[in-house]
Amino acid sequence: MAEGGDWEIHLRTLSSSARDSNFSNDPASDSSLLHSVRKLIQLCKSENSENLIARVYPQLNKIFQRSVSSISQSRSSSGLLLLAILQYFIDYGEFVLHDADPSLRTFFRSCLSREFADPVVAEATLDFLNLNKRKILLTFPTLLPQFYPLMLKLIAWNGEKLEKPFLKVFPGLMSPGSFLPLFISLVDLPVLTVALEKVEKSSGPLIGSSIATIQKSAAPEMLLALMDEAYTGSTIGDGGADSESEESNSITSDPLFLELLKDENDGLAQRHWTSPGMEAALQAATSVPSDRLKQALKMAPRLLDVYFSIALHDVNQSLKCALIPMLLDRNSKLFPDKIFSYEVRKRLLNFMLAAFHQSPEFVAILKKPVVDRLGEAYDSPEKTELALQLCWAIGEHGGGGASHKDAARELFESLELLLYENLSSSRLGVGDSVLGSSSSTVRRSSQSRLLCFVVTAIAKIATHHRELLPRARVSLGKVAHSRISDARVWKRARDYLGLMNEPAICLSVLGPSGPSSGSIQKPGTINWSEGKTKIIANIPFYILGGQEGPPHHDFSLMDILPASFTSQINPTTMVSAAKIKSIDFFRKTPRDLTEASLSGAGISAIAAIIIIFLFGMELHSYLTISTSTAIIIDKSSIEDTVRIDFNISFPFLSCEFASVDNRLNITKTIRKYPINRHLQTKGHEFNSGPITHTPKHDEKVDETYGEGSVALNSHNFDKITHEHQIVVVNFWAPWCHWSRLLRPSWEKAAKVMRQRYSPEHDGRLIVGNVDCTKEADLCQKHHIQGYPTIRIYRKSIDVHDDLGIPVHESYYGDRDTDTLVMKLDDLVSSIGTDSVKRSTGRTLDYTKGRTAPLQEGCRIEGFVWVKKVPGNMIISAFSGSHSFDASRMNMSHVISTLSFGSKITPMMMSDMKRLGPYIGVGHNRLNGQAYMTSLEDRANVTIEHYLQVVKTEVSGLSHNMIENYEYTAHTSLIHSHSIPAAKFHLEFSPMQVLISENSKPFSHFITNLCAIIGGVFTVAGILDSILYNTCKLARKIDLGKNY
């Protein structure tokens, strides 16, 4: 009782907050509201009350919408309140039929974009995402990748204190659409921090609101600035402003900063690094870095570690291939901090080499950007290091492998060009006079190192592709004879020339790191039959590692002895064999002391056959799974529900009025498709549309309304619909209550239309009516099942159904005279444009009209959840503003699928063939059954199905517990005085069937096997002894011996 009183109090708090004018515009300003929301959600989880969940939802939804709408004017934080409500939407969205996806996107777009700088909201957001990470990634996989820029702003602003929970969320930011843009954003995380601090400096602590204002106002200013730059040559941000405010404005209007401050992923955008505002901001930030910037400089490399780890293991080849050119481009465009640049470049190069190792063909595919970077090798130390690594990758992977000879040749030519350019211009000596001794030494050292790698790459790629060997010998010969200042370069070229004269050794030293497809030779082995007889004893292997001297080797005798030899000298083998033999239980009799007999051979053969036969029987028994069945009381709780899947076709029930009534709003789980009488689907899914109220009629009925509409019948209907642009027809019945309410309004509206658009002079609009009691065939031809039905026929429509009836619209709006006149005027004004709109697929306004079903039948498919109590599922025609002629309703139907509980997949059934006699027989007993009636034979017929449902649980060995529901069905036809229906009466049995699978323990199998072998061997020995001794005794008797 106390808990019930508590939730009543908190629910009243929510209701009063939603109604109170003081808080209706800003619910977040109510300090007690958040406590009430959290308490109610906690009670929903603890009590698991469907009533409480349903009562809380409207209030929470209203508070959520008002909080979102008041964020821009509110001075209070709405983040915690919205997160609490979002938790309710995620937990109970399926029950209350609320799609949480729009609400989550609204929170990110409207709330978090303004409050990400609030540490409490930021931490609560990460906790929320981690708590619901699995459900968000499965149900809303595009949410986090879409808002990854906003999440990066959150971590950039709040720093390392939120890094640990952010790293748990980080993998969810990656998707095929965000993979490449996310890399750029991670590299520019320090720049993002600078941009955020600039916004804070110019606008104060409300940084999120200031960014929103900048983003709204910056688009037209940026467009004008870009146009000015294109036509006048001036750059964005020029203006010579010296004041601090003008500097801040130029910073926030810079294109890079605007790109960084975005909240959503809008694809891969080009970022410029040459704007004055950008350079000034970065220079000022690096001179005196803030604590927040220092944290961002430390976090970015760690985030890149996670990013590259996921990229190597989970990302497809095409995305990794697309990432490498971006990586090459950004290698020299990093935030100007030495430690940060070093850490990031190290990770970029490591990932590039790892990607080339995984997919060597990338070297050939990306030859264009690779060649471009080789051409920039001497522009800066960073580009020199990148070119060095690329040279290593080209040589190590043979320019992409044996299948990419053209690409390998182009890469080889690029290496030659780089080599000849250095030799011809003497780069190793030019410029030393104008540089200091220290800088010139560093320059010469880096260039010599690069040349060593170029020489090695040329030798290795020529070893992979033998057709390039002559050119490689020429190139290396020029280097060897150049005798440039650094001896390491020309000595390396000389050594490689010597290796190339020994093909076997060259392939072992410079060949691929693994066995290639064209050769079975392994790395490090030498096939001397391919070389000369001379053995080169001093091969300088150390040159591949760039070491100054040969490696140090510490060999021991045990390292080179074969394993078989070492096992022979194992000290444990020297233990006395005599002591071990003393414990032998099975002493052996010398073969010379035994005697074989024909009887023993025969009994041995028979015993072996018996042992093999019994072994097979025992093995079959061991492998056979035994099954036990028991009937127990169903242990399901009162709150448990059962899913009912169905697919039922009604050839004579229109989708326009077909409804499923089980006292639940199930429109999201059921779909309707128009079908013809042959059960063939015609057209797309039929959407009923939101008809939320009873149509309005004229308040006063004028009995002297007269006849204003044209009476249509089967003789003049087709003629009139083909001669006029628009024909609006009222299909009615005199006995129908709704038809009698509509008739005065309809005739008065028809008179007004006749006066405005005379059929004799204008002819664009005809308002008609059809009395379905007199023209029953015409109404049936046009699929009329409810009265009154207003249909709109257009002359310009060329789509027809199977009976040749043009596709038309149904009107469901208000039925008073003014509304009808307004609707008819709109139809006339739409002539000439409406056909174009319909052809482009424009959605109709459901308050005015929508496309009527093409066929008179309907296929209803979907599922419902019901409690395990006796109940009904009823399918019938229903409308709150139409009447139905029960004598004309035919509820004949064909059941394609009707099952309870989870479906047993074919794979699962294949593993459960042994359970065939126990399960699966009654799972879909009504599938494929047809129940057809004829109006000529019996009218007003309701088809009732009585279903007894029994729960079956299977506890298997190779799968988890399986729940299955089987049922029996009995059907009867009942003459009904009301509207006919198809009724399914459900009764769940209080008992359930439990099927268990049991296997024989392996210990029993071994025990029985030993018993079989020992028993047969013993019995055979006894029989052999008896037979042998009997024969021996018989021979003695024949010889006359008594002993």
Give a structural overview.
- It is found in: Membrane.
- It is a single-pass membrane protein.
- This protein has 1043 residues and is of the alpha+beta class.
- The protein contains 39 helices and 19 strands.
- Helix 3 (31-47) runs parallel beside helix 5 (79-96), helix 5 (79-96) runs parallel beside helix 7 and helix 32 (598-623) runs antiparallel to helix 39 (1002-1039).
- The radius of gyration is 43 Å and the shape is extended.
- Mean pLDDT is 76; it is low at 217-252, 426-436, 515-575, 662-666 and 833-848.
Topology:
Blueprint lengths: L1 H18 L1 H4 L6 H17 L2 H20 L9 H18 L3 H16 L3 H13 L1 H7 L3 H4 L1 H11 L4 H7 L9 H9 L1 H15 L3 H26 L11 H9 L2 H6 L15 H12 L3 H24 L2 H14 L7 H21 L2 H5 L1 H9 L5 H16 L8 H21 L11 H28 L4 H14 L4 H14 L2 H8 L46 H4 L2 H6 L8 H5 L16 H26 L2 E8 L7 E10 L7 E4 L8 E6 L34 E2 L5 H7 L2 E7 L4 H20 L8 E7 L4 H6 L4 E2 L1 E6 L14 E3 L5 H13 L4 H6 L10 E2 L5 E11 L3 E7 L5 E2 L8 E8 L5 H6 L17 E3 L9 E15 L6 E14 L5 E18 L3 H38 L4
Parallel strand pairs: 5-7, 6-7, 17-19
Antiparallel strand pairs: 1-19, 2-12, 2-15, 3-13, 4-12, 6-9, 8-14, 9-10, 10-11, 13-19, 15-16, 17-18
Helix pairs in contact: 1-3, 1-4, 3-4, 3-5, 4-5, 5-6, 5-7, 6-14, 7-11, 10-13, 10-18, 12-19, 13-15, 13-18, 18-20, 19-20, 20-23, 22-24, 23-25, 24-25, 25-26, 25-27, 26-27, 32-39, 34-36
